[in-house]
Amino acid sequence: MRIGILTSGGDCPGLNAVIRAAVLTGIKEYDYDFVGIRDGWRGLIEGDVRALNRSAVRGLSRVGGTILGTSRTHPYDAEGGGPERMKATMDRLGIDGIIAIGGEGTLAGARRLFNDGLPIVGVPKTIDNDLDATDYTFGFDTAVEIATEAGDRLRTTGDSHMRCMVLEVMGRHVGWIALHSGVSVGAHVILIPEHPVSMEEIGEYVRQVYDRGRAPLVVVSEGFKLKDMEQEYSTKGIDEANRPRLGGISEMLAPMIQEHTGIESRATVLGHIQRGGAPTGADRVLATRFGIGAVRAVADGDWGSMVALRGTDIVRVTLDEALGSLKTVPASRYEEIKHLFG
Ligand code: F6P
């Protein structure tokens, strides 16, 4: 059997560890053969592939990014896209099935292609950790770790100047990265999309901290909205999937905090640093387990499934279940931590 592997959508630390584990498991246990499909669905549309043998995946679990490249090419809307063309590519290259590693958009494409007859197994990836069907996705732990280090650094410079530092992290419509990194760094206020807060409340927390002689640290998720905002802060247009590009709310908030409290404030947008570089040990382990699980699903002929983490077990869900709902931060998780603010 020959399996094609692709990575699609935004990259994420741990993608290479999935590829390595899938290739090694497939070769060692099932005598499979692998090809790497370049740049997500684009490679499958255009038949752009590379060899993926044992030596191609050597030492890969610690390497960030994806050796296969990625893109946000839509499997149907892109020029030349659609299941017939992809099936023809698979037939021509002798590919019997696909392992597609991606987030919500990729998995939605995979589900549609599966319903149109393509044999596909999904592997979830996103630093945002916003897929409800899995307890965690690899990449999230790395993003939290990087945001924590950034927060620690901001605290020392904030302390030196007695400034309010505002650290903005990614996460799109969910606040998991902000919540976890904010708790880990001991932020004085954590602002997440699921819980709008007014400028008065933020100012109150910041002022309390300052009046105690400390430099306030605010961690804000890029999708956070002040109570009176109707939309998320977005000034960079829309992405290939027609979603508003987020990022930059801290640059709006810091001057507002300064104006509201009179405390000098600075914004830092962490951006893609959260997605680059080596995955943490925890992410390497999860990604490796997902890679093994995906090949086992292929071996069982369980097409149309996605591997997921439940507790400490790797399980399978259907792609339909996988796309059921967004995993938002429950109100109880925010309430649990809120008394530490200020
Ligand atoms: O979904 C992952 C993510 O990093 C989000 O947190 C962020 O909003 C978005 O992707 C950024 O996308 P791009 O890499 O296209 O700028």
What attributes does this structure have?
342 residues; alpha/beta; five-stranded mixed beta sheet; four-stranded parallel beta sheet; 11 helices; binds 6-O-phosphono-beta-D-fructofuranose
Question: How would you describe the overall organization of this protein?
Answer:
This is ATP-dependent 6-phosphofructokinase. Pathway: Carbohydrate degradation; glycolysis; D-glyceraldehyde 3-phosphate and glycerone phosphate from D-glucose: step 3/4. Belongs to the phosphofructokinase type A (PFKA) family. Mixed-substrate PFK group III subfamily. The chain has 342 residues and is an alpha/beta fold. Helix content is 39%, strand content 16%. It is built from 11 helices and 11 strands. It has a 5-stranded mixed beta sheet with strand order 3-2-1-4-5, with helices on both faces. Strand 1, helix 1 and strand 2 form a beta-alpha-beta unit. Helix 1 packs across helix 9, helix 5 crosses helix 6 and helix 7 packs across helix 8. It is elongated and about 70 Å long. The N and C termini lie far apart (59 Å). 51% of the residues are buried. The mean pLDDT is 97. The structure holds 6-O-phosphono-beta-D-fructofuranose. The site of 6-O-phosphono-beta-D-fructofuranose has 12 residues, from loops.
